[in-house]
Write a structure and sequence with these properties.
Blueprint (H helix, E strand, L loop, with lengths): L3 E4 L9 H9 L6 E6 L11 H8 L6 E6 L7 H7 L3 E5 L6 H10 L3 E6 L17 E5 L14 H15 L4 E5 L7 H7 L3 E4 L1 H4 L4 H10 L1
Helix pairs in contact: 2-3
This protein binds D-xylitol-5-phosphate and zinc ion.
D-xylitol-5-phosphate (DX5) binds next to strand 2, strand 8 and helix 7.
């Protein structure tokens, strides 16, 4: 399985975002992960559609948009027209998750579902074959630079088992507290896509850092 890296720009230099996007364009980054926070679903506010749209004009890499917001259905079309290629909602924020997932796909985007650290993988049993991406949060969402919750490794294994059992093509993405120190372990638990922000953007050479993460 191809290893995918999706750097999150949350820890990028927001005063020089164009420079960081240009660096990502020339790097081994496969996707660009954009963390949208509303201050309600999570205790932080980041950015929304205008920033996604601005970034989409600077890159041809797929935009992997992670919505940490309540009522995501209300904004799905807006994120699509802003340039999102993969749109991930939180299971905890969706009452009619199946409808939300179908709606995302009907607009031509890949649909992702994310689970907070306390939410069991088994809740996805009846929807796993419908989703393109399962995003396992390995920190409590809201901030960059937190410590990886070790129990997430078991959740990755459970997710892998469910995907294999159901013969689905869903990719497993893991997000939060990932660095060169734990990337190999996370990949071998079954992850296909790693998101990282602080580790990449605080390193001396982000391009080299991502290259090493992929090669682990
Ligand atoms: C956390 C976000 C993450 C975050 C990861 O709520 O969803 O994508 O940017 O940051 P690090 O890699 O610094 O934990
Ligand atoms: Zn994220």
């Amino acid at each position: 399985m191809n290893r995918i890296i999706s750097p999150s720009i949350l820890s990028a230099d927001l005063c020089n975002l164009q420079k960081d996007i240009e660096m990502l364009n020339l790097s081994d980054a496969d996707w660009i992960h954009l963390d949208v926070m509303d201050g309600v679903f999570v205790p932080n506010i980041s950015f929304g559609m205008p920033v996604v749209r601005a970034i989409s004009k600077l890159t041809a890499k797929p935009l992997d948009v992670h919505l940490m917001i309540v009522n995501p259905d209300k904004y799905i079309e807006a994120f699509c027209s802003a340039g999102a290629n993969i749109l991930t909602v939180h299971l905890e924020a969706c009452v009619h998750l199946h409808r939300t997932v179908q709606y995302i796909k009907s607009l031509g985007m890949k649909a992702g579902v994310s689970l907070n650290p306390h939410t069991p993988v088994s809740l996805l049993e009846h929807i796993i074959t419908d989703i393109d991406l399962l995003l396992i949060m390995s920190v409590n969402p809201g901030f960059s630079g937190q410590r990886f919750i070790i129990g997430s490794l078991n959740k990755i294994r459970q997710a892998k088992e469910l995907i294999t059992k159901t013969g689905s093509n869903t990719l497993i993405e893991v997000d939060g507290g990932i660095s060169l120190e734990n990337a190999a372990e996370i990949y071998s638990a079954g992850a296909d896509v790693l998101v990282a922000s602080n580790a990449i953007f605080s390193s001396d050479n982000p391009t080299e850092y991502m290259k090493r993460m992929k090669e682990m």
